[in-house]
């Protein structure tokens, strides 16, 4: 490695000391095997590892090939990988098809791949330290008169080693306050500016001040209340206001999602669209709705049984280079734990881990993430049936991780609506049950069920 005129080969240290550089070929092969066998492991390793974490050149080339194939949306399996490496003229250099077949047949690699990833990162850090030490040694032997320069360069080399494992997220208070002042100034000059993604519901936007980057927003409701429909309404509204939306549906197919979107946008009933019983006078509205939706930056993924890691990897690609992004996950309890992870002692523990993963994803992607959640059955047994934070199903960690918790509540029939402690028929209460950045409260919405459309209830009229 060259550094300011010094051409240092840190591996020369191993020649004089007769000590091999930190490495573990078996761990490298095991990680590559797990990446070939599991798409989920592949995506997580592409996030966690760098090419230099593989010391063996052939393993490093295989990792780079898998990463390039993934970036091109190509299938990553033993046969495809061999074909790709052959096209690059690298197949025989990495050990040929026999080595790749051995990697693909090592199913036991899924058991300990997480530990092996940690081993690769550890050895890589140690090699960087050895490299930095070699350069610092060379600097010390051939130092200029000003030793402060040598010390400064030596400190920089060591910091470069640790920067990867200890990522600096701190800032001095002066810098933070300056950024805040600039933000306030911009908002005062442009009163229409929002702090985040608009929901499209004026009263909700005024209470939440937009959905902010890094926020985890949970929307909970009983089955049949309309949490998916509300999330789709919100996604479309956000897209109309300039946001790029990545919608992950673990419950419905792309076509089912598209049917709901078209019904809400065109005003044509969902049942009519599903049954294809379209009247002649409805076609212009369907065409209008289709054209309007087609112009929005909304991407839909309906992969069943996906994981938080896979969603994070896909969302990163979907929203790359986009100024304003939003991720929607429908819904949290249908997520799967990462492949190879030891199954948690209880479902609540698994949901807690996935909830924490969603919060980390929001901060990592620097965009708001909306996660829909089921409510427990006990809400229906309570007098009044008004949902509470404690009703979030299977885990109290959801309540703790979320920055905002929204609970949707509406009466399911006329008898229930007739009660004094229940919402009127057709009215859905948008309950802000938790809000780290603002006030709590209720916002009444009208739900047009046959068109899966939510509208704000007007409570004030001009004379």
Strand-helix topology:
Elements: E1 2-3, E2 6-7, H1 12-17, H2 25-37, H3 39-48, H4 57-71, H5 78-87, H6 96-104, H7 109-141, H8 147-162, H9 173-189, H10 202-208, E3 216-221, H11 227-240, E4 244-249, H12 254-266, H13 270-275, H14 283-294, E5 298-301, H15 308-318, E6 325-330, H16 347-365, E7 369-374, H17 378-381, H18 397-401, E8 404-410, H19 414-417, E9 427-435, E10 441-448, E11 453-456
Parallel strand pairs: 3-7, 3-8, 4-5, 4-6, 6-7
Antiparallel strand pairs: 1-2, 8-9, 9-10, 10-11
- How is the quaternary structure best described? single chain
The largest sheet, given as strand count, sense and whether it forms a barrel, is: 9 strands, mixed
Number of helical stretches of at least 4 residues: 19
State the secondary-structure class.
Answer: alpha/beta
What number of structural domains do the residues give?
2
So, CATH architecture of the largest domain?
3-Layer(aba) Sandwich
General form: globular
Please give the number of β-strands.
11
Stated plainly, the CATH topology of the largest domain is called: Rossmann fold
Terminal CA distance? 78 Å
Name the CATH superfamily assignment of the largest domain.
P-loop containing nucleotide triphosphate hydrolases
Alpha carbon gyration radius: 27 Å
Quickly name the level 1 CATH class of the largest domain: Alpha Beta
Side-by-side strand order of the widest sheet? 5-4-6-7-3-8-9-10-11
The helix fraction, in percent, is 40-55%
Averaged pLDDT = 81
Poorly predicted runs of 5 or more residues: 1-16
GO biological process, one term: DNA replication, synthesis of primer
Region (Disordered): 1-24
GO molecular function: 5'-3' DNA helicase activity; ATP binding; ATP hydrolysis activity; DNA binding
Organism: Tractidigestivibacter scatoligenes
């Amino acid at each position: 490695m060259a550094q300011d005129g010094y051409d240092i080969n840190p591996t020369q240290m191993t020649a004089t000391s007769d000590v091999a550089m930190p490495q573990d070929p078996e761990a490298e092969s095991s990680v590559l095997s797990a990446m070939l066998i599991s798409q989920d492991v592949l995506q997580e390793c592409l996030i966690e590892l760098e090419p230099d974490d593989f010391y063996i050149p052939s393993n490093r080339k295989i990792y780079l090939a898998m990463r390039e194939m993934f970036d091109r949306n190509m299938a990553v399996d033993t046969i495809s990988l061999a074909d790709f490496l052959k096209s690059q003229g690298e197949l025989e250099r990495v050990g040929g098809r026999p080595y790749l077949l051995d990697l693909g047949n090592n199913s036991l690699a899924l058991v300990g791949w997480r530990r092996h990833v940690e081993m690769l990162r550890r050895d890589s850090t140690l090699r960087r330290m050895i490299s930095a030490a070699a350069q610092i040694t060379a600097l010390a032997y051939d130092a200029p008169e000003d030793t402060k320069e040598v010390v400064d360069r030596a400190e920089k080399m060591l910091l470069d080693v640790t920067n990867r494992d200890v990522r600096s997220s701190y800032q001095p208070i002066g810098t933070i306050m300056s950024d805040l002042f600039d933000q306030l100034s911009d908002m005062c000059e442009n009163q229409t500016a929002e702090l985040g993604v608009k929901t499209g519901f004026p009263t909700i936007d005024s209470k939440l001040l937009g959905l902010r980057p890094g926020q985890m927003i949970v929307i909970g409701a009983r089955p049949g209340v309309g949490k998916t429909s509300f999330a789709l309404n919100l996604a479309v509204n956000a897209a109309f206001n300039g946001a790029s939306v990545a919608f992950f549906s673990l419950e419905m197919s792309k076509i089912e999602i598209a049917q709901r979107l078209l019904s809400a946008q065109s005003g044509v009933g969902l049942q009519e669209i599903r049954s294809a019983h379209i009247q002649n006078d409805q076609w212009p509205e369907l065409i209008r709705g289709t054209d309007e939706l087609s112009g929005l930056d909304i991407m839909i993924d309906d992969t069943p049984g996906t994981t938080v890691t896979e969603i994070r990897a896909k969302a990163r690609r979907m929203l790359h280079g986009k100024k304003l992004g939003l991720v929607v996950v429908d819904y949290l309890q249908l997520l799967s734990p990462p492949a190879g992870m030891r199954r948690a002692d209880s479902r609540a523990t698994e949901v807690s881990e996935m909830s924490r993963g969603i919060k980390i994803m929001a901060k990592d992607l620097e965009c708001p993430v909306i996660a829909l959640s089921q409510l427990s059955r006990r809400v229906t047994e309570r007098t009044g049936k008004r949902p509470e934070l404690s009703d979030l199903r299977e885990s109290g960690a959801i309540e703790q991780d979320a920055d905002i918790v929204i609970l949707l509540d509406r009466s399911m029939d006329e008898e229930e609506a007739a009660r004094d402690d229940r919402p009127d028929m057709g009215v859905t209460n948008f309950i802000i049950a938790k809000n780290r950045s603002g006030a709590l409260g209720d916002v009444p919405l009208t739900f047009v069920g046959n068109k899966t459309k939510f509208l704000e209830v007007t409570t004030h009229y001009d004379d």
